[in-house]
Amino acid sequence: MPDSPEAWLDEIAAAYRDGQEAIPFGPLVGQAFKPEDLFHLAPLVCLKFRGIKRTRKLIQQATDAALASYVATKERIPEVLAVPQLAFAFAYLASHFGLDLLDERQVEAVMEYIEQNQAKLLALTKPT
User: Fold this and answer.
1) How far apart are CA 106 and CA 58, in angstroms?
2) To 10 degrees, the CA torsion angle through 80, 48, 124, 105?
3) Do 74 and 59 touch, CB atoms closer than 8 A?
4) DSSP-assigned states of every residue in 37-79
């Protein structure tokens, strides 16, 4: 796992790019994906990047944490989650929290760093 907020930013950018790879395949499965939808993939990408087996229980655990946190935060500070990369970052970190890989303090510290360095995240996740 990353050991600094900067390392987390780099990993989240890589995870977001991994999620972006699903966009062209959406229509093939009858689901159009847009960048603002990628936060839904964050729990699965979390499991993938951590090398954790995707069991039904763990997928549900990560997804529940990500979506519950997303909904609660969207009500309080919607402007942060309006940026697809920040929404993904938040859901990715919340997934780690749901899997007991990070505590609340760690999630808050990393998310604060990411918000402060949003320009770098956007640059690292720019489609090629």
Assistant:
1) 20
2) 40
3) no
4) GGGGGHHHHHHHHHT----HHHHHHHHHHHHHHHHHHHHH-HH
| Tokens of residue 108, six digits | 């808050």
Given a cut of 90, whether residue 60 has pLDDT beyond it is: yes
Amino acid at 91: A
- 2, 22, 70 from 63: Cα distances, Å: 21, 18, 10
**pLDDT attached to residue 29:** 67
Q: In 3-state terms, what secondary structure has residue 98?
A: helix
The mean per-residue pLDDT over the stretch 82-98 comes to: 95
* Region of poorest pLDDT, from 67-81, 86-100, 107-121: 67-81
Q: What is the per-residue pLDDT for 100? A: 96
- Residue closest to 15 by CA, chosen among 79, 96, 102, 101: 96
Is it the case that residue 28 has pLDDT exceeding 80? no
Closest Cα partner for 93 from 123, 50, 54?
50
Pairwise CA distance, residues 38 & 41, whole Å: 5
Residues contacting 61, CB < 8 A, separation 6+: 98, 99
